[in-house]
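Two entries, shown back to back:
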Amino acid sequence: MAVRIEFLGREASIIIFILILAQGFHYSRTCDCDQQYFCNCSSNHLQQVPKVPANALGLDLSFNQIESIYMSDLSPYSELKTLNLHKNKLKFIHKDAFKSQHKLEVLDLSLNNLKNLSSSWFQELNSLQQLNLVGNPYTTLGPAPIFQSLLNLRMLRFGSPSLREVYKNGLDGLTHLDELTFVGSNLRLYENGSLKAARPIGLVSLSLQNLFQNNPELVSKVLQDVSHPETLLIIKDVALRTNTSTEPFKSAREGGTKSLSFQNSTTTDEAMTSLLMVMDGSSLSYIGLEDVHLIGQGWWQKASYTHYESLHTAYIRNLDIQGFFRFSSMMQLGFLLVHLHKVSVINGTVFVIPRETTPLLKNLEYLDLSQNLLSDLTIEPTLYTGFGAYQNLNTLNVSQNVIKSLGLMSRLATKLKSLTYLDLSHNSFVSMPENCSWPATLRFLNLSSTKLRKLTPCLPSSLTALDLSENDLMVFNQRFPQLTTLILTGNRFMKLPQGELFPRLQTLLIQRNALRMFNGNDLRRFKTLQYLEASNNNFVCSCEFVSFFRHDVDHFITIRDNRHDYVCDTPFTLRGDAVDSVRLSVFECYMIPAVLVLCSLIIIVLGLIVFTCYKFHIIWYLHMTKAWIQAKRKPAVGRLVEELRYDAFVSYSQHDAEWVEEILVPELESAHPPFALCLHKRDFQPGRWIVDNIIDSIEKSHRTLFVLSEHFVTSEWCRYELDFSHFRIVDEHNDSAVLVLLEPIKKETIPKRFCKLRKIMNSRTYLEWPEDEEKRSEFWGNLRAALQRDE
């Protein structure tokens, strides 16, 4: 039993260990932490706060299934500055869950299941600047103060369709609040002063939906608290259809509201007329309509007597007008148009401004008609300048329309005498006329994404900023003496334009082209260039360019975009590598000099080898060694069967042949017993390689008799015979050499490379041929004894 329990204990330990490893792997897999210590754990079906590095600065847990946050879940992460718990299933947060987050600046708890808000959550969040509580099912806010400890809070978002009652909750103590978003579409009770902060809030966004129609008195209380001349008031998600629904805006007028915007709403021309009448006499200076659906035919007569002298900006974006083509002329809004200085109608299906309407725009300075339906046929009446129209216009944006004639636009722009900024981007000009007229005041021209393929002198030379990005341009040859900013991104330029054309250029953007490289000479031609953006090009990473970019480019200009986006296109082995990370060898950078140096070194080394071989006879040594090895490889059977045929192999110089043949040979071969001598002239096998004859004769001889003389040491073949005898002495460890000095010679004349023979000469007695005939009998006796075979 004990054994069984022990086994189960080990098994449980292993299972627990595996689970721990799996959990750690799960955390590492689901949370991605970058080098800025921001951990993204979003959309990973997490049910609890995962383990992340303790020094994490940001933690994104949005779109998970976390239901509770306990006291210990976040305590290790005291360095957190951003915590996002948006769209989870939070029901419970411990009162001390955020106790260690003293540095937290952003907290998002939106779209969860929190039914109650606790002030204890925020007690230690002294650094919190942004708090989002929108979309939780709490029904009451207050009366206990909730936000009073958040003294550094700048942005607060709270409320939901579930919210029914709002009481004072501590906003009056927040002195840094800049932005407030409140959602209360089903609000039933509102205590006066609940949304009133310690000072005016810069932006207040209210989503009250049907309350304008169903409970205007409550809306009036809310507007009374948030309206102020310094506050931009945004009304979202409402339906203003009747005169009654606009009554609450009297509170906004009384509060001195200057900026009013409607977003994601529906209204009618009747309700808008009523609004204008309600706000009559106010200091309203800005009105905005974004994502608004307008019903009606544009009858504004009832508001024609109102006064809006301070209204100078109208911003309209994504306006959907039901029955647009039945909509009446804007003439009836003349009482507003004559005061406007800035008008934006973006994505509003505008195809024309009638010629009769443009004189009402005599005070207009800024006009944005982008993302509409203006064409060559309708742009001319739209920009009609008669009766003082557009006399003050300095900015015109007609981008993303269907205009096709650049010549027409230049002619119309010439009549705009105050125009300095013109945006014609995202139209389809394709070509450019040779000559154009432009207003002398024009300084900025945007022709990006207009499908231009070629530049002509049409462009005005008065420009200080020119945007030609996202076209199909390859060459730039026009001079712009005043240009300070040039944008050529997304074209097909293979090199930088000539700097002499832009004597005052300070900023050049030329990303996503076909640039191969640039160097110091290219940049010196730009006398005043300070900033360059040239990433995402097809750079050739030559040694010159890589060295210049890594070490010298900062001496000329400031690279303003990311240097890691400057990557190599060629050579193929470096494709995709950042230029800053490329390291090229000396051989790659200086191939011709490197080849010359390498060849020179090879020649020198070969010369040294040749000289060494000559000086120390290395070739000769190798040749002799090869011959001896070949001899040694011969089968030894013959030597065993056949005894030594000769008593001595006689090695002598041809100059000493007379002495050898007439004196030495007769004396030894006639002796008793006679000696068998091997002479090359007599005994070498005809037709056989002489070296083989020498080796064979030495091997078949008991001794080798060297007849030394001055002629001997200078004879090449005598040297061969002496050398092979040397090999035999070294190989067989014997003293088979017999030296006869025919005449006195100096030991130094014997080649030094034959150290063994030199040693023999130094250690043994020479047999010297005596000049005195009386001593010759002794000489012959000694020689016969030296040649005598061992018993």
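entry 2 starts here
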Amino acid sequence: MNVSFYFHFFLLTQVADLETLGQGGEEMGGLCRPLQASMVWLAVLLLLLGETVNTAQEFDPYRVLGLTKSASQAEVKKVYKRLVREWHPDKNNDPGAEDMFIKITKSYEILGNVERRANYDRYGQMEENKQGQHQQGFNRHFHNSFYFDESFFNFPRSGRDFSDSKYLLDHAGFNSKVLPDSFKRPYLIKITSEWCFACVHIEPVWREAVQELEPLGVGIGIVDIGYERRLANQLGVHRTPSILGVVNGRVTVFHYSVVREHLRQFVEDLLPQRLVEKVTDKNYVSFLGSWHVENNPSVLLFDQVPAVPLLYKLTAFAFKDYVRFGYVDQGLTETSRLLHQFNINSYAPTMLLFKENTEQPADIIQAKGMKRQIMEEFVSNNKYLCVPRLVNQHLFDELCPIKQFHRRRKYCVLLITGEEPGFVPGNQAFLTFASSNTKDVLRFTYVYQRQQQPLCQALLHNQAPLFAQVVILERRSPGGKAVYRSVIGGWNGSDDDKTRLHEQLELLQRDPSYLSYDATLPELNNELSPMFLIQWINAAYDYFLQIYDDLLFSNWREMMPILSLIFSALFILFGTPPPLGIYPLLSPQPASRPPKKDFVEVTELTNITYISNLVKLRPGHINVVLVLTDASKNALLRKYAKEVFSFSGTQTLHFSFLNADKHSQWMPSLLESCPTAARGDEYSSPFSGRPRDFTGHVLALNGHKKYFCLFRPVFTGDTDTGGESSSSSSSSFDEGSRRKATSLEVHHKLDRLGLWMERLMEGTLPRHSVPGWPGLDTTSPSSSPAPQN
């Protein structure tokens, strides 16, 4: 039986008794009337409390979504999407569809977040939900029982509008999505809570601002501090309602009255000041000609509005690292020559994009209703010059990406030139050649040899050419591995040079193996990085602005971390003695940066290291083992380190070597346990009487899954015995030939190891499974090595 039945019965009984008591109280001078009123209200509150407890117990997010507590997060999300489509009020005519939709959304808010779900599973109904449902139950049952409107106590309707749920932010989502994205667009975030009465008054203005700013490209977020206290502490906000702006990872608090015009101006003030330059007849030549220094295209927007539109500023902020933006006010007399030169139509906004040719725009767009998607697509398709200069590693990665497996190749045609006037004609001829060869598989770039000396030395073998050189390259691995080929004869821009380059590009597209040289490319120097002092001044300027803002509005709680950081920085920079006689130990010279790792760590497999490096190797890790002998150890290790150096940065790869003179039976035992790995006479039976030489073999061993990949060495040089060339299918020498082999001949066995490592990383090598790993001193495989004495 429902608990509320007993409270209803108790209430009616108390009212009846109190009426009798009230009648009798008339004889006592009305002394019982206060007691009568107090007991009636006490009964009412007890009734409402019982109804609220019932309501809170009825809500179960697992039951609403039809899930069990063992359901995964993927199942929760899948069921939520299905139920939302089924119970959406616009698609479902059921009278209870809206209430069910709100329950589904509320359930997903709890179960869709890992932290909230864990709190619910641990403590049951969450405190915020209890308050919200207490509020909702209070309004509903009080209204149903006594016919009072919910505004009787001036309580807002509990529960969030389902249209706001897409803007909700949690701590993980803010740090993984909003903060990185704030470097491309500003965010406007509202801080609210379930019991925020003032939030109701700003809600209409907030909705109007969202409808206006979101289509322009402003990110929107809502943080419920009742659920996300950790995120609220990170943002430094402890009052509701509050509105924040986030740009470039920096949080700014909105302190003015909540009016739509103020919110729009607040977003505009968040953006950097010099995003868009005003262009007139006097400065347009220098603006368009700055592509050579800035290494970026230029965009001009022509419009009749005196102020730069916010949509254009937001587009400029999104592409500030790629394109320069200028604005031309068509209403000024100082822009008449500019309008006439480019034949601008004054009836609609026009955007012109210029690259190396400042006399003719590379692209143009004109529309009365200029939308954000149109502008972003227009700029995104033209954010690089025809022949951009490689000024940092990030640009190199975007223009010349690493070759991916099963994807189309990308070749980088690189001109190594100089900044002197004598190189200008050749550079212009290279630009003309690139403009006429616009194939998607080719990307034309250039570098200045003086600015990128490490890269040029790696491609030109430390030679200093007297004239420009053209190199065609393809990047193979993140470690810097690349294959390349230089165009014979250099480059001076003549017709013969263009013909020769065109023929080699055609040959390359027919035969990718034309790039026959390999090199490890160093990381490019960042030519555009500002000096440390400029960075420090810019950061200090931002901090002082925030301090001034906090002082103006007396926001001491949010200002204390900034003050602490600034005083700490001043103390470190100027060495001011701290109070209380505590003096830090300062080194006389600043610590130097650690040198880059320019070697490969190779471990020998012995009785001590065998278990940890193979048998008990962590899942997902692979040990690449080189088999060698005492005679070939030095030559093979040097070649081995050179071939695998570009892969040494991978955390899951380990590099070792096995001495076949010390452990001669390990390799035969491994191959006998896996017949699929043995082929030909070189892995014949031990009873054939023919000695077997495994020098130069490389094995990629997965200790956890018990399989290996095998590299068979190839000798490409000439032997001393008769000048015979060893074929690629046979890699073993007899004992007499091995004694006569020179160190040069031995190290040629690993000439193809680099390509084999690339196939290993792509996962295309055949895998040979084994029942177990043989011990170092045993001939039969086992799951662990034999006991050592």
